[in-house]
Amino acid sequence: MQGSARRRPFPAAAPGSSPPAGPLYPGRHGSVKAEDTFKPSPFHLDLWFYFTLQNWVLDFGRPIAMIILPLEWFPLNKPSAGDYFHMAYNVITPFLLLKLIERSPKTLPRSMVYVSIITFVMGASIHLVGDSVNHRLIFSGYQHHLSVRENPIIRNLKPETLIDSFELLYYYDEYLGHSMWYIPFFLILFIYFTGCFTPAAGQSRMPAAALLLVGPSSLYYWYLVTEGQIFILFIFTFFAMLALVLHQRRKGLALDSNGLFLFYSFIITLLLIALWVGWLWNDKILRKKYPGVIYIPEPWAFYTLHMSSLHPARGSA
């Protein structure tokens, strides 16, 4: 009687058979979390606040810190304050992205997330080195609104192969580094965005905290897109998000507060980019550096062109 009263909660698996898939085996690929039922997720105020704050301080603020702090504190042959900001950004940002993915109510592809984070860190680290040298060249009179070979401090270098080395450095900074940094960055945001849908109409609204953060977040994305010269990547991501919203709406699903925050941030960013381009539309010098159909000047190119008098070259310091 005692033995028969014991209940076996699960049937024994046959010899050689695989364990059943489900919540009991969360490590199996393709398993479904119990939350994968479009359960609305509360607004992640802490993560979005930290994310916005560190973007402004560690990314946007790093070249500013390098310029305003006394040169004697950070000699030109040593890492600058901006470099230390960049190092902190390369550690904190992937951590916050992983925490954001963890809070998604939907199971997301882990392998893609891991590869994206690894590529992100590598690209941001490549950019750290190239950007450090390129920004420190400002102290020697380097002008970002000109190409490498057109810069007065570069074109007279001897032997001329040194110019090729600086062009290689520029390539690592502006092309390879940016690509390996920003492509996985926007990919992770889009992967997270795919889980930001809910069937509850009452959950499809932004709290007051989100409304306060959407402005600073959008302004940072404007800087990211214009300075990083990644408008194609940004607009492709935005259209993919828009297509997903329209597709999910046909199923009766709407964005939750986190999805709305991200989506509205991208919309406002697009408007800011349009205003920026319209303001500098007739700038002939910037037009020369950014030829072609897509004309989006970099803020630092605008700075060295129109505000260089505020920051004279200090190569002799």
Automatic annotation (TrEMBL):
Gene Ontology annotations of biological process type: lysosome organization
GO annotation, cellular component aspect: endoplasmic reticulum; membrane
Region of interest (Disordered), residue spans: 1-26
Keyword terms, alphabetized: Membrane, Transmembrane, Transmembrane helix
InterPro entries registered for this protein in UniProt: CLN6
A Pfam short name: CLN6
TM regions (residue ranges): 47-69, 84-101, 113-130, 181-201, 208-224, 230-247, 259-281
Identification of the protein by name: CLN6 protein
Organism whose genome encodes this protein: Copsychus sechellarum
Top-level taxonomy: Eukaryota, Metazoa, Chordata, Craniata, Vertebrata
